[in-house]
Specification:
The chain has one domain (43-269). It has 6 helices and no strands. The protein has helices spanning 45-51, 68-83, 86-99, 105-164, 190-196, 208-269.
């Protein structure tokens, strides 16, 4: 697992995203489930750039001075930076400087910042996407566990009532359910319950056997979501590693891009 505590721009709270929330106790219906809290915004990009030794943005610089094709080319360079191919990034940036007649030191500095900024933001958005997936899966698992807990309690109480009424053996399976049943979902998890198809009732089960079949169905569903959650956690950890690598690369390539551009400008100036 990646240690992200010292990575600029990544909130250390993300390290706990894989921790699943605890299921709400069955005897406290409607209690709030403690879901993962996370923030992928971390430090602002300006702070990250300063940490990399790059001056703050020039307020007088605007990408609008470049045509749409040039701005698209910069975005392509930012994407290449995320891929880790530094040679490709330097080559593309050199071509950009030549083809767009960049000749001012201030412009070079601002363009380097733009490449780093966009690459960082692209990576952060990817990280946010995977973090949301992990949180969603954990929320679904917690909800299903709560539901299963109440179903099992209802099954147990129905069996006890049937036995108390003199029903034994195989007849227990066809015995009717005792009392009413209603699974409460709060406003926070109502959307997740709807997405899962999780109702507040017994889905038509009227006997103990029917209830046991319903329990088995949701146990299978829980196992499936558990597998998906594990894969999502792996994806998230990979993205955390990728962001760490991108930030480390930024530190190395920012000077290289600047030196490349300035060498071209000096050559043009003769």
């Amino acid at each position: 697992m990646t240690n992200i505590g010292n990575v600029p721009g990544v909130n250390p709270g993300l390290a706990n995203l894989g921790n699943e929330p605890q299921a709400t106790p069955a005897n406290t219906p409607g209690a709030n489930v403690a879901l993962d809290g996370f923030d992928v915004t971390g430090q602002g990009i300006e702070r990250v750039l300063v940490d990399l030794g790059i001056a703050a943005s020039d307020p007088n610089f605007s990408l609008d001075r470049y045509p749409a094709s040039a701005r698209a080319e910069l975005s392509s360079i930012s994407s290449a930076l995320s891929s880790g191919d530094t040679d490709q990034v330097q080559s593309q940036f050199a071509n950009f400087i030549r083809s767009n007649n960049v000749h001012q030191y201030q412009d070079v500095n601002a363009l380097v910042q733009q490449v780093l900024r966009e690459s960082y933001m692209q990576n952060t958005e990817d990280l946010r996407h995977y973090a949301e997936k992990v949180r969603s899966f954990n929320e679904q698992k917690s909800l299903i566990r709560d539901y299963l807990s109440e179903l099992r309690q209802h099954s147990t109480s129905s069996r006890e009532a049937a036995i108390a009424g003199g029903t034994t053996g195989d007849d227990l399976e066809t015995a009717g359910l005792s009392g009413g049943f209603s699974f409460q979902t709060s406003g926070d998890n109502a959307a997740a319950a709807q997405a899962l198809g999780l109702t507040d009732g017994l889905e038509g089960a009227t006997t103990i056997q029917g209830l046991d079949d319903l329990i088995a169905k949701w146990e299978d569903k829980l196992n499936t979501i558990g597998d998906d959650a594990q894969l999502a956690n792996v994806d998230l950890q990979n993205m955390l590693q990728k962001q760490q690598q991108t930030l480390q690369m930024m530190s190395n390539i920012s000077k290289a891009l600047h030196d490349t551009a300035m060498a071209i400008i000096r050559k043009i100036g003769g």
